[in-house]
Predict the 3D structure of the following.
Amino acid sequence: MSNSHIFLKSGFIRTPSQNGVGRYVCQLQRVVLKFCKNNGSSRGMREFVESELINFAKNNPGVVVYLKPRRHRAPVISAEFLNGDKQWVSCHNYSKQDISKWLNLLRTQSGNTTGFRLRKLQHTDHPSIQGPWTPYTFKDPAENLAEYPNTELSKPKIQLKTATDELLEIFNSVQISDKKGVE
Amino acid sequence: MSLYRQTLALTSRLLLKQALKTRITGETRNIKRWVAPTLNELYTRRLKVGPEPPQPRSTFLEWNYEAEVFAFGKRLGEDFDKNILKQALTHRSFVIAEEEKAKQKGVQLEELASNRSLIKEGDKIVSDFLKEEFKEHPDDVAEALHDYLTSVDMLAHVASHMGLRDIILTSEFPVENSTLADTFKAVVAALKQSQDVARAQIFVKDFLISQLNGKEIFDIWNPEKPLEYLTNLLKQRGINEFEPRLCNQSAANTILANYQVGLYNNKKLLGIGWGESIQIAKETAALDAIQRLHYQK
Amino acid sequence: MAGALRKIFATFARSYPKPVAQLLPRLYSNVPTPYEIVDAQEERKTYQDVIDKVNRQVAQAKQGRLFAVVHIQGKQVKVTEGDVFVVEGYWPPGAGDRISLDKVLLVGGRDFTLVGRPLVQRGLVQVEATVIEETLSHTKTHFKKKRRKQYMRINFMRVPQTMLRVNRIEIVGEVNHPSDVTGLETRVF
């Protein structure tokens, strides 16, 4: 069994600069598509640049797209986020659709989240609205005036009758009724 | 530093050339015994020089200032006038540096407008709007909130998360927080000039006031002596005295001692608080009472 | 003798239910819950009083911060304004979408709680949220092995995660006063 996730960096939900409280801001600020013009491993990237990149740029005017052809090197997407994070995705032998999906993922992310395990799937600054429970919450105020040691308050809250007690009670009641019967 | 790097590059090239020469002239073996030592040497030298100093993003090959400025407005969902926005991003220090450069080269420089006036205008818009927004808070709380939001660190945080850090034109690198804060103000003013004040105010509300999300008033504003503050506050409202009462206590004389104190006036609860000593509990109760009085909770 | 024994049993049976009935809320037993006859009018008066109090508080905007339990993607989340939570698995809304969470199971303020059966009255509460991020979780390893059976499988997966920011929780309707026609709140005409 692999336990590698235990050693991952972990933490809680982070939202850069309270995104979404006022308005939503796309956190991807620029993206550089690096590819080779004739190597086969860049084929998908070249197809993507030819057919889909224009639409991507049109739909996301807030993202600056750069193209960087480099000879004989593997295709790469390098993304820069508003919080200063950088992410690098290797696109070796990726198809056009793969690249489209990865680019879309980068667009919707708010930073480089690879290798980061979320410890909780929820974040709140107001954990309790009606007030957390304390030992004082449902306490009877009359108990404040009690003097200790107090035999009444020291008893257990639920005290069942013992078998002896019950038998004695029954015996007594029978005795009384027998007497009555005799009379 | 750069001189050292150049010499490093030069020596490594020489080293490689020499190694290649020996390969050609030396014995013909398929095992290239020169590769590992050379790479090792280069690696150790690389370590010795240390990491590269950070470079401004604008010096990179993939950089288009026009596109960056265009994307800035679109990202925030605002329509900026391009020239006004560019002016808002240009600091005085950059203009001076450019003039200096032009003088040295002996070239005539076209007029560059700095954002000095815009900063002043933006500062006023932000400040006025915050005062208007916090009108319903008591004066001292409103002032604390205003100071918290207009502090240099807060404005710089907001500005850098808008993506201003890379597109500011200034002579300093890395960009200082005060410059970032000033640029935020200038951008607000630029938005006002491009559109109108209402739009600029919505902008401030969405980006600056939203930073108060998840914050309590007492995270930002704290009276130094809560009990005295409460006494004064109650006097203004015609209540001359209040009575602290110990509501609950447990674990006295231990390190986990805790007390619950309620402040009462005429058998009416004003505020309730906890603490590890009675004095602290009283003060937290006073804070609770202040909050209840201020916000009628 | 036989008469005495019978009496013992009779008294035992009589004496038994009383202490058990006293302990009922604390102990489980198969003794039926004792019921009481409720005066319908009296009951109505009591709850109307409570409902009026809640409505008055909401009308005067004195309810303070509200929280709600919403049902989303088969799970329930307790949220209040400004919270962020994650929805796991494939979920169509995209980054930047503002959505309304309609399945509200419970709403509460400082002084009251409205519990739905199972949902609170439609159109009573508005819970709005913005999708702020869509990402993938860390790589999870799914490893299976059967000993001595030459069987071993290892799979890696990253689960889609969508982050939502809760923007607004507000009581817009009146408690216990549903509109005549329901079910049209989300329709667009």
About this structure: Chain B has three domains: 2-49, 65-217, 225-295. The CA atoms of residues 36 and 232 of chain B lie 80 Å apart.
